[in-house]
Each structure stands twice: as C-alpha cells, then as structure tokens.
Amino acid sequence: MAGDVANCLAILYLMGLARTLTPSGSTDAPYLPVGVLIFSAILVLALTYFISRLYKVLDRQATKLHELESVVENSSHLIAIASPDGRLAYVNPSGLRLLGLESDSVLGMNLSDLYAEAGRDLFRTSIWTAIQEEGRWQGEVEFRNVVTGALIPVWQTLYCVKDRTSGKTAVLATISRDITDRKLADAERRAKELAETASDTKTRFLATISHEIRTPLNGVLGMSDLLLESELNQEQLRCTEIIQSSAKAILNQVNNILDFSKIEQHKLELDHSPFELCGVVQDVVEALAVNAYGKAVDFTWDIEPGIPTLLVGDSVRLGQILLNLAGNAVKFTERGEVFVSVMRDQELAEGVKLRFSVMDTGLGVPADRIDRIFLPFVQADGTTTKKFGGTGLGLAICKQLVEHMGGEIGVTSEPGRGSTFWFTAAFRKQSVTDPSIARHKQKFGDARVLVVDRQDRNRDVLRNIFSAWGCRCEEAANDTLALKALRSGGDPFRFVMWDSGIPSMYDPEIADQIKQHSEKHRTAFLLMVHLNQSRNIEKMLGGGFQGYVLKPIDRLHLADAISVAMEGRRSPHAEAPPMRSLAKIPQFSARVLIAEDQPTNREVAVSMLNKVGVRADSAENGAEAVLALQRTPYDMVLMDCEMPEMDGFEATRRIRRGDAGIENSKVPIVAVTAHATQETRDKCLATGMNDYFSKPFEMSTVIKVLSVWLPSSKKQTDKVVTTVAAEKPSASPPVPPVAFDPEGLLNRLMGDKDIARAVIGGFLEDLPLKIEELKSLFASSDAVAARREAHSLKGAAATVAAEALRAIGLAMEQAAAAGELDKAAALLPQLEEQFPIFVSALQSCEWMQMEKAKGVTA
Amino acid sequence: MKTLVVEDDSTNRLLLQSFLSKYGICHVAKNGKEAVDICRKSMKSGEYYDLVCMDILMPKMDGKEALAAIRGLEDNAGCTSDTRCKVIMTTGVTDVKTVFESFNECCDAYLTKPIDTGKLLEQIKVFRLV
Fold it and tell me: Which of B11, B18, B23, B117 to mutate to test the interface with A (most CBs of A within 10 A)?
C-alpha cells in the first residue's frame, strides 16, 4: 500500500511540474526545460521505486519478527536473553512461570540467579568458561522457583549470539527444558529395577536357606526312620512317629516356600500319585495334636463313611493345605475344640470332589478382614499377616493350591465364637478300593461295642468308624451311663472304648466293676488316652483294661489295637509292640559307595544301607568317589549332586569317561539331590546318572533304588531278616504298574470309547514293529536311535494306559540314555512277555469286547 | 478349525487325529520337516492352519526347529502374533522345563503326554477355536 501511495504522489508531482514549466514562454531556450523535465521525471520514478522497496523490506521484517516473537512467547521451554556479561534482558512467559518471576523483576537479575545454589558454582566455573571459550554449553542443571523454592531439573542450552559485523558476543541466549517428568520416570524405573533385584535376591535367599534347613532335617528324618525300624514299645513308637511327622511338616513348609515362588512364576506342577486319604489327614492331625491338647483344646477329625480313601492326586500339597488351616485353628483357639472333617462334595465323571472343613472355637476372623484373608500376604496389612499368617505362608498359598486342585476355598466366621475354613479339591479314584473295611467287617462285623466319652464329637467319630465296620455301637457320656449299659441285658459287649477323661475311672470301685465285667464276659476294655498323657499310661492302665489307643484316633492303627486287646493280651509296654506286625526287610549282599559331604546324611545313609545288608563306604566329595571306585569295584554309587571340590555331576562324567577304570564306567549311579526340581533331575540324567531321588534318605526309597539298580545276583530277596516294622500303609504306597488301566485311559479321553478302541488298535499293530525295530537297533548298538525308539514306545504305551509296558519302556530309555545298551537290551524279553499280558487285560475289559464283536460282524 | 498334528509316534498321532477330526479338518505330519513342508504348501495356496500340535522329540527335524521354521514362514507371510496359528507343544513330563525355556516365545501352550483330550479341548476353547 505504501508503494501505491508513493506512485500516486509521483504522478501528481510530475503533473504539477509540467504545469509550472510549460507557460514559461522563453522561445530561445525551449530544449532546456524539456531536458530538465525528463531528467526530473526519471529521478522521481527511481526514487519512488526505491522507497516502495524499502517499505516492503521493512514490512516483511516486521512480520517475521512478530512471528518469531510469538514462537518465543508461546514456547513451553524457558527462553531467556542476557547481555554478554550475564545480566538478564528478557525471559519468556513460560520461563517466568517456571521460575516464579514477574517480567519487570527480571531486569537487573543475573543469569546465575536462575540456578539453585548448587548450580551457581557450576555456572561461575565450568559453564561460564565454556561460554567464553566455546560460545556454547549444554547440560542438566537445577533452577529454583523463587516463590515456592521448588527445585526444577532442566536440560539447558546456553550460547552466544555473535554480532554479525564485529563477531563479538552481542547477547547470551538460553533455552531450557523442564525435565521433572522424565526424572520422575527415571526414579520409578530405578525403583522397579531395585525391586526386581531384591526379588531375585529373595528367591536366591529362599533357595539357599531351604537347603540349609533341609540338611539337618534330613538327619532328623533319617534317624527317626531308622529308629522306627528298631524294636520300640508303643510309647516310644508314637514319640518317634511324632518326631518324624513333625520333621516332615517342617520339610513341607520348606517345600512350601519353594512352591510359593513357583506359584508366583506360574510354574507349579501338581503330582498325580496314588495315596491314602486317612493317612494324610492323620499325619497333619498328629503333628498338631500335642499343641492342641496342651491347651485343653479337643482335636478330632472325621471322615464321611463310605467315601473313597484311595485316591490319585497330590497328597503332599493336600497335607500342606490342611496343615496350614488346622495349624491356624490350633494356634488361635484357646479352649473348646478343633474339628477337621472330610466329606463328599460331588461325584465327578473322572473322580470325586471332596470337601474338607476345619472348624474351631477360637478368635474368629473380624468381618472386615474376611474378604482379604486369602490375598497374598504382601498385599494384606502387617497386622493381618502377623495375626492370621499362621504357618508363615498363610492362606494365599492355600488358595492357589486349592485352585490348582480344581476346588474352592472359603471361610465363615463369627468373631469370638470361632471360624470354619473349608475347601474343596478334586481327586481321581484309584481303581482298587480300600480292602481294610472288608477285613474289619469280617473281623468285627455285628459286634456289640460301647463308647464311653464325655465329648459328643469323639463319640460321633468312633460311632462312624464302628458302624462302617458293621458293629452295633452304643454310647455313654459318663460313668453312670456306662455302668448302666454294661449291666443291661443282651449279648455281651465285645469291646469297650473308655476315655481317660472320664474322671471316675480312677475310682477303685468302678475299676473293680470293669475288671469283673471284663473277666466275666470276655469283654476287651481299651483306654483312650490323649497323646500328651501317654507318660501316665502306666498309672492309668490297671483293673480291667486290656489295652489303650492314643488320641487323636488313628484309624489305621485302631483295628490292630482292638484285635490285640480282644485276644486278651494286655497292651504291653516293654514287650512286643501291639500295633506293629512282623514285616520283612529285604537284604542285599552288595557293596555300595556313598559320596556325600554332609556327615549327618552320610551316617544316615550308611546306617540304612547296613540295615539291608549292604556294605557301605563313604566318600566326602566327587574326587574321593572317583578314587574309591578305582580301588574298589562297587555295585552301585549313591552320588550327592552338590559337594565341595568336585560335585556329583563332574564325578559322574569322569566315572563314565573311564577315569575310575573302564570296567567301572558303567556302574549304576543314583543321584541324591537336595533340590527336588525337574531341572536338577534332567541334569542328573543328562550327565549320565541312572536315577535320582531327593533327600531325605528314607528307608523305603533306599530299598527301592537298590532293588532297581543292583545287579540281580546281588539281590537276596529270599533271605530276609524279620524285624518289626510298622504295618501302617504309607501315605503313597508304591503301586506296581498294572498291565492296563482302562479307567485312567477313559478319564484322559473324556470317556470316548471309540477313540480309545481306535488308539489301542493302532498300538497293537504298531508295537510288534517297535519291538523288531528295537531288536535291530540293539543288534547294531545304535544307542541314540535305541533311546529314541524306547522313548517313543514309552510314550505310546502311556497313551493307551499300558502302564507295565510304559514302565519297561522307561527303564529301557533310561538305560539307553546312560549308554548301557546291554541292560536296555536285557529288557526286551520283559517287553515281549508283557505284550500278551496287555492283550489279555484288554480282553477282560468290557468295552474292548464290544470292539471285538463289531470286528466279527463287520 | 484346521489342525496339523506333528508327531512321530503313530499311536499318539492316531489319538490326536481321531480327537481333533471331530472339530474340523486334521492333517498329520510324521516329523518336523514334513510339518514345515506342509505348512509352506498350505500357505502358498492361502490356507492357514488354526492349530498345530507339535511333538518335541522327533527324528529328522525336532519340534523346536520345526516351530521356528513355521514361525519364520508366517513372519514372511506377514502374519502378526494375533493372526499366526496357535501352537500346542506335546511333551513328556520331563521336558516341561525345556518347553518353558525354548518355546516360551513361539508356542502358545503345552500339554504333557499321555495326552488328556479333556485338557486339550479346554485349551482349544481358551484359544476360542471352537
């Protein structure tokens, strides 16, 4: 626009000039005015052009300046300009906000005033030097807000703006970015890293500490195991059993700790082994009974009559859950009772779901805590953990385990009145049913019995047991009623269970009546004594009592105790213990080397081996083991995995390599591991060991390992030493593999018999081929292929539930893996023998017959 | 649902095939190499498997290699982690650890042998394939 105005002015000016010059009338000089006129016109035009250009440039610069100014004003970064000596000239609005300054207060401040105290020194020294020398500085510093005093971490760029002509510093400019958020994120990340490291450390710590605890525990367990094999009277036996069950409870807890970390990492694997339910519950109850009775808390347990007790599942984990819940109950109950019950929750297609309850009359759980009680302890508040954490790992782990077992967990509680913790868990049933009930029925069926106990609960428990045996059970809650019942007509009582808590039993008159009754009617009287009163049994036993049983009542021992008492023999103390029967301990005539660095474990192992007739020597580390093997040929080596100087893995590698003589390179090596992890087990087999078991040393495990791995000439199972051994079936009795497990197969196939038949058909066709293949592989000594073939056979047998064939396949695979082809090949005849057995087992299976029939009609 | 069963043992193969055929098309391969070839061909014709059940210990090419090769084919075909096939490793109990270590990235689940078809079905339901 300015240009347009200039143009107009120029035209007007020229028009005016022409008018003033034209009338000058001078004739002799007409050319001069014209020349001047033209020159002036050109001059004016040029001038006008330059003015318009100037206007344009100035206008563009003003626009640009305005734009830049708005960028600076609106930038979220702090932007400031200072004179070359550092006096502030300008700070943009974001900067003012950040520093808490007013725009006019900036003037007169120095650049260094922006910094927090620590930054000022840095500014005066290194920053200022850098600016002077290099014209630029960049780095992380802290400013301070003058109003709030808050420190503001910033990333600052400071540089000199040079004068274009002189090259001298014209101004100092700085741009600073607030990095508070990034710093916070950094701090969070660091905290997270720290926490992760701490968690790692925790895991390592737990692993170490559990190892440290296990070692002495192994001593306790091993020695009590040995003690149980010696001659004990009933009281000593019970004490030893309690030492053992308590030590096992500790071991469980240690394993619990390891489980917990596995659960956290979602790596928990449940066991699926056969076990006996009553034994699991009894073990838990016994481990806690002394504490309960010590507080005058009655502690009983009962199981719904008729529910299956031979189950398949993870008995150790079940025991852990029960121990945790019952342990809490005993801990928080000062008077009254704790009652554990097992009931049928629901029949499942493939098994049974059981409901376990632990009822107590203790503190109860406050209503506001009930919701949180099963949360992991890290989330609960400290007081909750302390008060209800129980055995340490608390209820969170129970919840996780229960859920893994396909069940639920819950609690109902009334503060001050008590709580009932319950959970459900699913188990498969074993194909066999407990034969003991039938035996008891035969022995005690139709017997008239009397239970004398003040506690309703105890009478209920015993009535349930005796009714299941087919007995006619009568009850009495006190001595008067008891004597009345004894005097009543009818057939005489076969036996009477009399609780020691009935006070008048010390009354000589009553004792006399009992004695007379006992002699006259040949009635057996048994005293029921609390576990912690067993020291006074001598005093209590007298008069007509023929024996006693300890509370909590052990169902597995009860029948034996009653039988002995009924036979008229008084339960002896120093004589042969009545609850035990003669059992056979197999004897081996072999020489075994034990490599174990821990003296207690070494001693336990040697004692156990001696017990079964094995001559045992020990080595303290792997190197010693290799040397010992050089000197003496052993029939077997028990190898601890972790030893100083040379560990078991290295020693095994050397022995297999022939360092202890080539003739010893194939000696069976069985790993003894402290860590029962799959990883360790895999490593053992990969290193060339033949088998493994986890500490503690247990008599049954040692015998099993010896029977499997000793050469058959060293097994002298015919020559046996009879000694006393508990008849009590172990919680998970070793069950020899069956030829065919139809139930297991159908369970896995969701009951689909068509698939089962098709798969078995395929297997029957395939197996002879596999056996031929194995034969040729053994003939050509191809260990790698033989191992794979055996593995495949094992897998196929497992698929069709040919359990015995599977076991042979497994042994073959393991032998081949250890490079012992001879041993693997020696299993072939067994394989061939087992095949027709499997076929005949199929024939006795009803739904397989349908297939046969179909085949015929087709 | 279109499934590929990779398994060297005929008994197990038969079991998986009998069961999975109830839910759709089920092809089989006897080792890892066959499995990779089959996958390559099917991808060329634009057909993708929804599910692969893969044994680990197999002759010629084991499950680990085969799985890596199949995942490679899928990557080349532009499959994302959502569109690639679901893989269940079938393994003996002793190999569970291996599965965790070696297959965590590549496979979606594992089943221990002997195969329990109930568990397999559950897993397929989790994958929303049936």
Answer: B11
CA-nearest residue to B98 within chain A is: A679
Mark yes or no for CB contact A759/B14 under 8 Å: yes
- Tokens 């309703």 -> residue: A456
Is B14–A792 a contact, with Cβ atoms under 8 angstroms apart? no
Q: How far apart are CA A567 and CA A576, in angstroms?
A: 14
- Average pLDDT of every residue of chain B: 85
Quote the tokens at residue A38.
Answer: 């033209």
- Between positions 677 and 696 of A, the ones with CB within 8 A of B are 678-679, 681-682, 685
A752 touches chain B (CB under 8 A): yes
Interface ipTM: 0.82
Minimal C-alpha gap between B11 and chain A (Å): 5
Query: Is the CB of residue A758 less than 8 Å away from at least one CB of chain B?
Result: yes
**Between A827 and B81, residue with greater pLDDT:** A827
Contact list in A for residue B21 (CB cut-off 8 A) is: none
Residue with tokens 């105005």: A5
At residue A379, what is the residue type? Q
Supply the pLDDT for residue A821: 85
- Residues from chain B contacting residue A747 (CB–CB below 8 Å): 116, 118
List strand residue ranges (DSSP E) for A477-537, in order.
495-499, 524-530
* Residue B5: pLDDT over 90: yes
Q: Assess contact for A444 and A562: CB atoms under 8 A.
A: yes
Residues of chain A with pLDDT below 50 are 25-26, 378-392, 569-583, 717-734, 852-858
B15–A747 CB contact, under 8 Å:
no
| Under 8 Å between Cβ of A324 and A344 | no
pLDDT of residue A728: 34
Report the distance separating Cα A448 and Cα A416, nearest Å: 41
Nearest of A848, A841, A769, A760 to residue A797 by alpha carbon: A760
**Cβ contacts (< 8 Å) between A691 and chain B: which residues?**
none
Cβ–Cβ gap A269/B96 under 8 Å: yes
Q: What is the DSSP string of chain B?
A: -EEEEE-SSHHHHHHHHHHHGGGSEEEEESSHHHHHHHHHHHHHTT---SEEEEESS-SSS-HHHHHHHHHHHHHHTT--TTTSPEEEEEE-GGGHHHIIIIITTT-SEEEESSP-HHHHHHHHHHTT--
With contact defined as beta carbons under 8 Å apart, do A374 and A349 qualify?
no
Which helix H or strand E contains A423, and what residues bound it? Answer: strand A418-429
- Mark out the alpha helices in A674-724 (DSSP H runs): 678-687, 699-709
**What does residue B51 show for φ and ψ, rounded to 5 degrees?**
-145, 140
